[in-house]
Amino acid sequence: HTAQVCGADAWSHAYGRELAAYPLPSLRQQKYWAPVGRVDNVYGDRNLMCSCIPVADYA
């Protein structure tokens, strides 16, 4: 979540803000606050792309 979402008055998620802001204990020391909720918005959800090598290369 972005800092703006975690700090907003309204919170509609089933989990708490603390878990949303710091899902891992290590993030309490060094946290990167993403400026957007998703890097490419919904483009990555609609245009799936595999970065695996072709199956023929395994032979």
Give the integer mean of the pLDDT values: 82
> How many domains is the backbone divided into?
1
What shape does the CA trace take? elongated
Question: What Rg, in angstroms, do the CA atoms define?
Answer: 17 Å
What is the total tally of β strands? 0
Order of helices and strands: HHH
The major beta sheet can be summarized as:
none
Can you characterise this structure?
The chain is an all-alpha fold and 59 residues long. It has one domain (3-58). The protein is 24% helix and 0% strand. The chain is built from three helices and no strands. The longest helix is centred in the N-terminal third of the chain and has 5 residues, at 3-7. The protein is elongated and about 55 Å long.
Features:
59 residues
Concise structural overview:
The protein is mostly helical and 59 residues long. The protein has 3 helices and no strands.
Secondary structure layout plus pairing:
Elements: H1 3-7, H2 17-21, H3 43-46
